[in-house]
Amino acid sequence: MLVASSKGIIMSDKLILENFMPYRLARLSSTVSSTIARAYDKEFGLSIPEWRVIAILGRFPGLSAVEVAEQTFLDKVAVSRAVTKLLKSGRIDREFADADRRRSILNLSEKGREVHDRVAKLALEFEKNLLDGLNESDIESFDKVMDKLLARALKP
């Protein structure tokens, strides 16, 4: 087992949770997500799942709820609840596919597009501030490491 320490990656046969890379990644992701979520909840009344649905539909319009769930890494129930709230608030629209009336197609409404653009600006500012303490080389290395870890994690 690999353990990260202040001296780099070392081998260990003992699990020390706070040094365990998957735990550290989950903690980082959760902390970053929760911090920014407070801002868009306060200003826009959006939950994390609602923002993720808006963000995905802003990037990939015309998806079904199942496809949104796959893109957001949220479970179908969380996406369904978010979609219901966003439909009620007028932030997304739903149509039904001609070929399969059971399949709904989701898109941002004009109101949803406005929210998307405002939250996206806030999110990009947050990312900039978060990365401010890193130099260009750190960011490039971090990107490469994330890509490599994702590729390895996706291998069967």
Description:
By secondary structure, the chain is mainly alpha-helical. The chain has one domain: Arc Repressor Mutant, subunit A (Orthogonal Bundle). It has six helices and four strands, in the order E-E-H-H-H-H-E-E-H-H. The strands form two sheets. It has a two-stranded antiparallel sheet with strand order 1-2. It has a two-stranded antiparallel sheet with strand order 3-4. Helix 2 (48-59) crosses helix 5 (110-131). The two termini are 19 Å apart.
Question: Nutshell version of this structure?
Answer:
The chain has helices at residues 21-44, 48-59, 65-72, 76-88, 110-131, 136-154; strands at residues 2-5, 8-11, 92-96, 104-108. It has 156 residues and is mainly α. It has a single domain (20-154), classed as Winged helix-like DNA-binding domain superfamily/Winged helix DNA-binding domain (Arc Repressor Mutant, subunit A).
Shape designation: globular
| Domain tally | 1
Average pLDDT level: 90
The major sheet is characterized as: 2 strands, antiparallel
Can you say what the CATH homologous superfamily is? Winged helix-like DNA-binding domain superfamily/Winged helix DNA-binding domain
Instruction: Write down the CATH topology.
Output: Arc Repressor Mutant, subunit A
The CATH architecture can be given as: Orthogonal Bundle
Measured between the Cα atoms of the first and last residue, the distance is 19 Å
Overall strand count? 4
Q: In order across it, which strands form the biggest sheet?
A: 1-2
Q: What string, H for helix and E for strand, traces the elements in order?
A: EEHHHHEEHH
Put simply, the count of helices is 6
In helices, the fraction of residues equals 55-70%
CATH class annotation = Mainly Alpha
Low-pLDDT residue spans: none
Percent of residues in beta strands:
5-15%
Radius of gyration: 19 Å
Alpha-beta content class: mainly alpha
